[in-house]
């Protein structure tokens, strides 16, 4: 399965903490822990884990089943973003989350370009109908 964006974000927080502890970074130059608080990371991991579990149960899924899984993940991510005052996922994070969803679907053998085309969407529009972040 593709790597979750939240792992990359956690790694950045940890690296920044290591540099701070080593004295190669000053407190004034830190930002990762503020950008990615544990509450955001933990909640995002939970949603993405649920999404991965749901995908793993799909066998020859219909378009409706795929869209339902994507919809639920996106709505749950919307709620997390709202809990973080609409600033949980900025532009870079949005792109990473959308890429993750695309890759997770592709890893499960779902032809994302075909399914989106059947519904008059571009490949990277699969989340747009529900996405607020």
Show the helix and strand layout.
Elements: H1 5-22, H2 32-35, H3 38-57, H4 63-83, H5 91-107, H6 112-118
Helix pairs in contact: 1-3, 3-4
Low-pLDDT runs: none
Following the backbone from N to C, one meets helices and strands in this order, namely HHHHHH
What does the average pLDDT come to?
96
Could you tell me the strand content as a percent range? under 5%
What is the approximate shape? Answer: elongated
Sheet of most strands: none
Gyration radius, to the nearest Å? 16 Å
| Share of residues in helices | 55-70%
Intertermini distance:
24 Å
Total number of helical segments? 6
SS-derived structural category? mainly alpha
Record field, number of beta strands: 0
Oligomerization status of the protein chains: single chain
Features:
65% helix, mainly alpha
How would you explain this protein's 3D organization?
The protein has 133 residues and is mainly α. It has a domain of 89 residues. The chain has 6 helices and no strands. Helix 3 packs antiparallel against helix 4.
Care to give the gist of this entry?
This protein is mainly α and 133 residues long. Helices cover 65% and strands 0% of the residues.
